[in-house]
């Protein structure tokens, strides 16, 4: 990508500059969260890879989600952690690259979660044809399409952002190059950019949300028809983790980017956005493991194999 706004040398990421007395505590706290996120997602991917019983569409998409979580946290955390060590500068090209990948990864996250909701829909509403509908070839195509769309999605937005003049300030009051904070620094018109963002939301985000909503309305209606309470609980447990993650994602995105009064509060926006880049990626492997007997059994089996080999 060619950046046309060469008049801007770079920006300063302020991070949590307002808490100087706690910067080392915050540094080690976020470093621990980042490490747990990477470790948890790598372990989950390894479990799926090593255990043939987990070679199913649901776990294939879960591995895609774990790979995304690793990429998203690695995109933000290293630079964010440096702000606690008073190393806050970020070049214009690096900032634009970070923003591009952040938009792409966020798009990929809700697209993957939409695909995973379809997986749960087929599993519960049409279980007899599950392996036929979600065959290996179809799953690979779905995965490839979501990654491709996500990488293309930020291009129109980035083309307009890179043309903006940033003359108000070069200090970004955030822990990464967030689009909302960047637009506050521009002294140019952002009307056209706002229209492009709205169009992309209507074309991509809204259908994904409505489709996810439709799948869960269908799933819940099927679950309610199950006669036994144990059967209903078992059916719901298969999609409880996914529903939790979906709810957290859409609530945080709505608060940060679509609720004006909330977005104007910088500290609130910074804190809630951490849910997307810290809490959700860290909780994903935990939620899907605790709610899933297959994953827990695979983990215990792996530990037993390691103990036997050690002897």
UniProtKB/TrEMBL annotation:
Family named by the database record: Belongs to the G-protein coupled receptor 1 family.
SUPFAM superfamilies from the UniProt entry: Family A G protein-coupled receptor-like
CDD domains assigned to the protein according to its UniProt record, in alphabetical order: 7tmA_OR
Protein name: Olfactory receptor
Membrane topology: Multi-pass membrane protein
Domain of life: Eukaryota
Main location, first listed in the record: membrane
Organism of origin: Ranitomeya imitator (mimic poison frog)
Pfam family, one: 7tm_4
Every G-protein coupled receptors family 1 profile domain range: 40-288
Membrane spanning residue stretches: 24-50, 57-77, 97-118, 138-157, 193-224, 236-259, 271-290
Alphabetized UniProt keyword annotations: Cell membrane, G-protein coupled receptor, Membrane, Olfaction, Receptor, Sensory transduction, Transducer, Transmembrane, Transmembrane helix
Keyword Transmembrane included in the entry's annotation: yes
Location in or out of the cell: Cell membrane
